[in-house]
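Q: Start with the shorter request: fold the first protein.
A: Done. Sequence, then structure:
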Amino acid sequence: KKYLESFAGMSALLFDVQLRPVTFFKGYSDLMSKMFSMSGDPISVVKGLILLTDHSQVIPLQSGLRASAEFQGGLAIDISGGMEFSLWYRESKTSVNNRSFKVLVESMEPDSLM
């Protein structure tokens, strides 16, 4: 009888870029170890801040003054995954949680004539 090695993991794409895969467990002994020490908390796959835009521009106004404008935009990302096991029913449930927050900061102020 041939036994196949148990394996569970997750791989993610972020802005068409393949991120490193995360392995939940590999092999039966690792599965049992994780199952008995499991806290129920999801494993973080991607967590970070991304600067989307950083732009500054001087705009000439009709009055002859100039205005200085600055724009910055960012994205906070948290992608995590978790697994629940039932050895009695021989099943597992996986969950993937995506959380993100986008912010755009704009400022415009008049410049001097020079």
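Q: Next, the second protein, separately.
A: Sequence, then structure:
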Amino acid sequence: MRIPALILLAASVSCGAPIVQGGEVSVVPAAGTQAGLSAEPSTSTDDAPAKYTGRTRNQPSTPALMPSVPTISDGVEVFTQGTVPSSIAVLAVEDATNRRRVPTDFLRTTLTSALMDRGFTPLGREYVDIQVRVGSGNTSEVRIPGAAVLSFQILEWEGKHIERKGRLQMSGVLAVHGLQGELLHQIRIDFKGALSITQLSSMTPRKRNSALIGQLVEVLFASFPEPPPL
């Protein structure tokens, strides 16, 4: 009994099997599969904080993290090489926008708390500020005995709706340099965050600001290296 060619073709498409067209092989994905994740912020009305998700680009089947090789996705580019020391000096956040609307002090405090939560030992702010002269040049030139140096530069900041509408859009670069000034970790991020309707109705403007900064820091540290074993 011969099976009609149209039935065989339909079966191949539904199973994600390759189809030969004009001597070239093209793969048709099975129904219901997705090419990537949505880059739009969550609009859920649940009480849980909205999560930022980036759309992953189609890349060759190589390991996710390799020394000296950046990992790239839409909105996030990560570079990791070597081990980050447990002692870290968090520099003052640099506002490259010059708009004076970036909460640099609060960002620095939140970054320091995130490092502590992950098992690192941030140095005292006053000690770091004494060791580092403002405008001393590239952060890779900053040396603090026995500690790595973490810097965060804000390139764009659209936060005028952060307290009223619960939305934040920004871009920046977070970098960690080692004891000799070598680059150990760097993340370049384009971030869009939004609170749910329930969060907007239940939070004060100040808490909305804290929640969105928390979302940003969560994305920044999602790929941060683990501290060295004790």
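Q: Describe the second briefly.
A: The chain has a mean pLDDT of 74. The chain has five helices and ten strands.
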